[in-house]
Task: structure prediction
Amino acid sequence: MSALPGIVYIFRKEMLSSYISFWLIFSAFIFGFYALGLWARTQTGTVEFTTNSDLIVMIYIFVTGTLTVRPVFYYGLSFGGTRKHIYQSIIIIFALFSLVTALIHTIYYHGFMRLFATSDVAIQIESIFIMGGLEPSVIGIFLLQCAIFMLFISLGFLLSLVKYHFGSIGLYIAAALFLTTILVPVFNSYWGDLGRWISQANEIQLTFTTIGAILLVLLIPLTFIKRISSFHGEKSG
Amino acid sequence: MSSMVEVKELNYSYGKEKVLNQISLTLETGKIYGLWGRNGAGKTTLMRCISGLSPANEIYVNGSVPYDNEEISPHICFIQENHPLNPLWSVKDAFCIAANFKESWNEALAEKAAAAFHLKLSMKVKKMSKGMKTALALTIGLASRARVTIFDEPTNGLDAAHRETFYDLLMEEHEQRDRLFLISTHYINELHRYIENLLVLKEGALIQDKTMEQFRQSAGFIHGTKEELNWLTGKAYILEKKEMGPLVRYMIDLDTCEDEHVLEKVEDHVHLQDYLLRVTDNK
Result:
């Protein structure tokens, strides 16, 4: 018996209201500045406002990933789900969630840009996907967004899962390993190379590289998912 | 009757603390089992292991180890004390989620039990009292129609009327379905009417596994003056001695007593709770 519908139900109940709230707050924020810009024009003044909507969505989606672990494992296991089924369900849910979020964000982004283009209000929504001289198609950006959002929600999930299973010490070790790659000269040159590569790569290269990173992030929990428990510090034998 | 659950020399520990010690038992389908033990005896851990929530390779449910077993899990339902229920859920949500995890889920029974507990389907968990949450968890357990259904302290927080409702629904299921129920409790005087077998845990070890009829025959009282009962010394294991002036009352362990004279003198039987308290005393 698949746990997918049950896990989807748990996830939906947990996240739906915060998801709707996020988009409402996001819209209110943008429209608020737009309205401010319109008002400023009537006062012969100007309001200049620049934001990066991708980053806002990425932060939100990362937080969503961190918040997913507890409800799905706590309730899922208590209701009789197996760890394997719960994990498979989470991956499917994240893929759909990223797809829907990328779709909504694409509509928002292009909708707002069209709206602002028709007025003289100095509001600019930037996109990291269009920086670096890339001029990809809407579909290309959409697919890249899907992959990036999936990577961020998976990263949030992984870090939260590490904390859930290993406790804070697991997070400290993960943070120490990450800092080591930045601070130790042998490793930190790789980050610079990666940055340069990203700035020169096209959207297809970026999308496939992100998919590779997602697979890596999603493979790590497989090493300990079988031992995840609702109850910590116990062993059989 | 066929055995549904088999536990073979189960040891279990939380870190360095051993909580279950060499537990072996067999539970048959179609029966209601009670599980009694003092606080910290290992009841909840044993139930978690049987339900597959905690890892234990020494347990077999229908021939398979239940831990993380996708074949077995849909047929086991473990209702924990303070069962996890999201405050955002309504009664209906909890039913929908349970229905997705339990293969034999029966919606009609869920609605019937919810009505018996006066739970409205639209009611949110965050608006519920402790008793109502317990009633919802019990409803899920009953309506799961799982072949192995385990309740941990099911009547904690329930008022007398709802406790009666639970036992009525439980007996109805027991009569109509071939299910195995395992119920832990501290209130054995209430549960003993409904169970057929009782397992007693003491400090992680299974010290008793008997039918209720065997428990009724397990201990008895002998009354008399101290002088009259001097002859008892060495002939029977005395579980409890109570002095009331010149009179004395001995609680005798009849399981270990073969002396005909002692057995003839036993006047009345002991309340189950008193007997269980004495056999789990640390003397």
About this structure: Residues 4-227 of chain A form one domain. Chain A touches chain B through 31 residues (CB under 8 Å). The longest strand of chain A covers residues 48-52. The helical segments of chain A are 4-42, 53-78, 83-117, 138-166, 168-183, 185-200, 203-219.
